Amino acid sequence: MTGAVILAAGLSSRMGMCKSLLPLGSRQMIYITAQRLLEGGADTLTVVTGNQSHAVQQALAGLPARFVYNDAYTETDMFVSVCLGLRAEMESDQILILPADVPMFSPQLIDGLLEKMRNEGVQAVWPSVHGKNGHPLLLRADAVPAVLQYRGEKGLKGALSQLLTAQYAAEDEGCLLDADTVQDYQKIVVYRGSCPPTEAEIQMLHQHFASNDRIRAHCEAVERKSMELADQVKHVKLDRALLSAAARLHDAARVRPHHAAVIAQALLEMGYSKTAEIVSTHMELLPSQMGTLSEATILYLADKMVQGTASVTLEERFGAAAKKYQGNDRACQAAAMRYQAAKSIWNRIYEVS
Q: Which of 146, 182, 187, 175 has its CA nearest to residue 163?
């Protein structure tokens, strides 16, 4: 069983306001931190509170968290909160530990930490990006007594120096980002905007908009076509994670009028501005996008090359549209414009002049 401890007791003196309650999109930072721990496989979640304890508990409403109050939070350092959290997680086989203001680590990072611990038999594992340690720390249960008994200097760092530890080399820049200062917080906001939503968030959006099996299957088919097209792109670097997430979400709000704008707005409210931008034009490109290669134009083309879950050529797709709209000049003209936009992207991918 994997437990998790979120440290949320501090005064946030450098920030000047409670870091864990800062917003990221429509949620507060601590909620996103907790949500990602649970998505990554944490079975239990302990939150150590102190400063603004009631507000922190309210921020986590709806999540399966238990709370431990550090009544000496104004006088003690973070290591006291670590020990309080560890005592509440004594039944766990391993425990993830991180501050509340590190909300942008990938849930998949936890799998890597667990595998590193299993394979090397170490007592503690830090994620490391370009030689710099990030969060969360993974601590094995048999190391907890040594940490709790430690009375030396440097708090948790000093306690860990007595253990068998390892670094897990990761490419997850989000695990390095915390919100000690206003500038740090702004970096997190910008970083979130450039990231795709997580798997759990993708599923949550489909549920929120009540997308049915047919819609979900279409989104998955468009995602496969998007990846197939991206494989053919030369000389342009695409963010495949963003493209994949956008494709899987592009029709999630299909049951709503103006569904592209609706799902884009939902993503904006969550703080995922880049994914929102890609999704927003999957029906109609902007004039500046015509004939260009980007995540947005690849999604646009992929969506035109999938009917239901079946792959089709542009000629098959728009030939059928011409027959369907025969006699409706406005609809035929709109379909012809969409065909030309899609064809210009296809030509760029396959370098057809």
A: 146
Q: How do the pLDDT tens digits run along the chain, 353 residues long?
A: 999 999 999 877 666 678 999 999 999 999 999 999 999 999 999 999 999 999 999 999 999 999 999 998 888 889 999 999 999 999 999 999 999 999 999 999 999 999 999 999 999 999 999 999 999 999 999 999 999 999 988 889 999 999 999 999 999 999 999 998 999 999 999 999 999 999 999 999 999 999 999 999 999 999 999 999 999 998 899 999 999 999 999 999 999 999 999 999 999 999 999 999 999 999 999 888 888 899 999 999 999 999 999 999 998 887 766 566 566 667 667 777 888 899 999 999 988 64
Q: Which of 302, 284, 187 is nearest to 243 (CA)?
A: 302
Tell me the two tokens of residue 25.
Answer: 């999109």
Q: What are phi and psi of 251, to 5 degrees?
A: -110, 15
Strands (E), the chain: 2-8, 23-24, 27-28, 44-49, 66-69, 94-99, 124-129, 132-133, 137-140, 165-169, 306-307, 310-311
SS3 139: strand
Q: Which residues contact 104 (CB under 8 A, 6 or more apart)?
A: 32, 174, 175, 177, 188, 191, 192, 195
Q: Is the pTM above the cut of 0.85? A: yes
Distance between first and last Cα of the chain: 58
Dihedral of CA atoms 49, 52, 56, 59 in degrees, nearest 10, equals: 180
Query: Cα(189)–Cα(19) distance, rounded to whole angstroms?
Result: 13
Cα→Cα distances 235→91, 111, 231, 349, Å: 52, 33, 11, 10
Which is nearest to 185 in space by CA: 315, 24, 334, 75? Answer: 24
Distance of CA 333 to the CA centre of its chain: 40
Give the count of beta carbons closer than 10 Å to the beta carbon of residue 184: 15
**What gap in Å lies between CA 83 and CA 89, rounded to an integer?**
10
